[in-house]
Design goal:
The chain has 116 residues and is mostly helical. The chain has a single domain (2-104), classed as Cytochrome Bc1 Complex, Chain D, domain 2, CATH 1.10.760.10. 61% of the residues lie in helices and 0% in strands. The chain has four helices and no strands. It has helices spanning 2-40, 59-71, 79-84, 88-100. It is flat, with a radius of gyration of 20 Å. It starts with a helix and ends in a 16-residue tail after the last helix.
């Protein structure tokens, strides 16, 4: 009986440690991604679509783009400098963060809103 209680306690600690580690990773990923908010909007929701919104994009696509900026394969004004400042693991976290953010709802065209 005592060993069952000890085993359950150890399992609970391992589970709690995993939850805390995940929360820390999520916070760390968002803090890395915060650098992108200046140009790409809060949580990757770009205003007006320029530059493109990152929220809800496919993780593999974002990671590919970041790596292409880093290597110079994808031309850019500043993104190549930003991408070079991160490790592969950090780029994975950034891409994962933006892929997990829900995209903003589409804004109707002016005519649909009764505009010109």
């Amino acid at each position: 009986m005592k060993s069952v209680a000890i085993g359950a306690g150890c399992a609970a600690l391992l589970l709690w440690g995993g939850i805390v580690a995940h929360a820390q990773d999520s916070t760390y990923a968002r803090s890395l991604a915060a650098t992108c908010f200046t140009c790409h909007g809060t949580d990757g929701h770009s205003v007006g679509g320029v530059p493109s919104s990152l929220a809800g994009q496919n993780k593999a696509y974002l990671l590919q783009q970041l790596n292409e900026f880093r290597t110079g394969k994808q031309p850019a004004t500043i993104m190549h400098q930003h991408a070079k400042g991160y490790t592969n693991e950090q780029l994975e976290l950034i891409a994962g963060y933006f892929s997990s953010v829900k995209p903003a709802p589409a804004t109707p065209a002016p005519a649909a809103r009764g505009g010109y």
